Amino acid sequence: MAGQSQSIQTLLEAEKDAQKVVQQARQHRTQRLKDARSEATKEIEAYKAQKEQEFKAYEASHAGNTQSVQATVDKETNAKLAAISQQFDESRDAVVKKLLDRVVLVEPELHRNLKKLGA
After folding, report:
1. How far are the Cα atoms of 21, 55, 99, 100 from residue 94, in angstroms, in the given order?
2. CB within 8 A of 37, min separation 6: which ones?
3. Cβ burial, residue 110 (10 Å; 0-12/13-18/19+)
4. Which among 87, 92, 66, 91 is positioned nearest to 79, based on CA atoms?
5. pLDDT digits (tens, 9 = 90+) for 54-73
6. Rounded distance, CA 36 to CA 28, Å?
7. H-only helix segments in the chain
8. Which domain of life is it from (predicted)?
9. SS3 for 118?
10. How far apart are CA 7 and CA 40, in angstroms?
11. Cα–Cα distances in Å, from 76 out to 62, 63, 65, 80, 82?
């Protein structure tokens, strides 16, 4: 009976040791997951910083082009506005005269679809 008791005691101790090993393995796995997450977060932040830096460099290299293009567009727009204003000033009197002639000088005539009565 003592042999059986000792065997049971050994089994219980082995089970406790196995539980400790399983618990340590779980803790180790949890710690590895936490480490992997923190490392992934660091890598993501580094990647973001790198891409942000690349974007700023790209933006800086193309900002001068944008400003020069904008200046060119503004110059062309001002030239076209000046041309339109000049055309307006030149043809204003003629257009006003044509409009007044059409409104004031009306020559009444019968409509072409109207048939003469009594014909």
Report:
1. 103, 57, 9, 10
2. none
3. exposed
4. 87
5. 999 988 887 767 777 888 89
6. 12
7. 2-104
8. Eukaryota
9. coil
10. 48
11. 21, 20, 17, 6, 10
Among 67, 68, 90, 86, residue whose Cα is nearest residue 78? 86
114 by DSSP, 3-state: which?
A: coil
Tokens found for residue 85? 């204003």
Tell me which amino acid residue 13 is. Answer: E
User: Structure tokens of 45?
Assistant: 């932040």
Side chain identity at residue 31, one-letter code: Q
Residue with tokens 């048939």: 115
Q: Look-up: residue for tokens 């065997």?
A: 7
